[in-house]
């Protein structure tokens, strides 16, 4: 878990590194399910996401309620099974956030970004080229075997264009745990957190 907090800190400080300092931001990197042990327990089951979704939604509400001064630009980053938790929270409770980012996701509980309670243009998803998630988490529902869609354990792959999210640029040779160690994906996340489009600093 200490490693996850380190990754969140790296993402939160990246805006300064690319000239985006001085903006009011809040970052919540939801690491639920990020550890190997929890991932192994969660294989093809959504029980942990069901249990954690309310806690995440309440946490986001608390950030809004306790923030003082100019409105902050809030972002939820969900990696791996943490993206499933974030998707379930947005779907079932709504989340007080401006942006939702999914990374290396096994599915987020919906078939389209518009079902997440935020405008689809504020939903982002990226899967690195060497991330095993695309091959390791195919849907186990026989009804999905021949429908031609990119279905994962917990719904359509949010990085599939048909999902309706915006594509988050990642590294073509990055693996499942490399998103916070590669410049391309790290800067992409930082720009979403800062609310700044690429090419428009």
UniProtKB/TrEMBL annotation:
InterPro entries reported in the protein's UniProt record: AB_hydrolase_fold, DUF1023
DUF1023 domain span: 26-141
Span of the signal peptide: none
Name the UniProt record assigns to this protein: DUF1023 domain-containing protein
Pfam family, one: Abhydrolase_8
Matching SUPFAM superfamilies: alpha/beta-Hydrolases
């Amino acid at each position: 878990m200490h490693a996850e907090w380190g990754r969140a800190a790296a993402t939160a400080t990246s805006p300064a590194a690319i000239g985006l300092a001085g903006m009011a931001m809040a970052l919540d990197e939801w690491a639920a399910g990020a550890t190997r042990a929890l991932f192994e327990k969660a294989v093809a089951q959504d029980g942990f996401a069901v249990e954690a979704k309310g806690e995440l939604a309440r946490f986001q509400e608390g950030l809004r309620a306790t923030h003082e001064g100019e409105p902050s630009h809030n972002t939820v980053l969900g990696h791996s099974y943490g993206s499933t938790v974030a998707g379930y929270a947005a779907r079932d409770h709504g989340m007080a956030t401006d942006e939702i980012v999914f990374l290396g996701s096994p599915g987020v509980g919906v078939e389209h970004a518009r079902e997440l309670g935020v405008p689809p243009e504020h939903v982002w998803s990226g899967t690195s080229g060497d991330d095993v998630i695309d091959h390791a988490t195919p849907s186990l529902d026989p009804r999905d075997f021949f429908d031609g869609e990119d279905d994962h354990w917990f719904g359509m792959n949010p990085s599939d264009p048909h999902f309706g999210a915006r594509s988050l640029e990642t590294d073509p040779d990055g693996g499942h745990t490399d998103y916070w160690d590669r410049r391309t994906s790290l800067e992409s996340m930082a720009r979403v957190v800062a609310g700044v489009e690429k090419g428009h600093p």
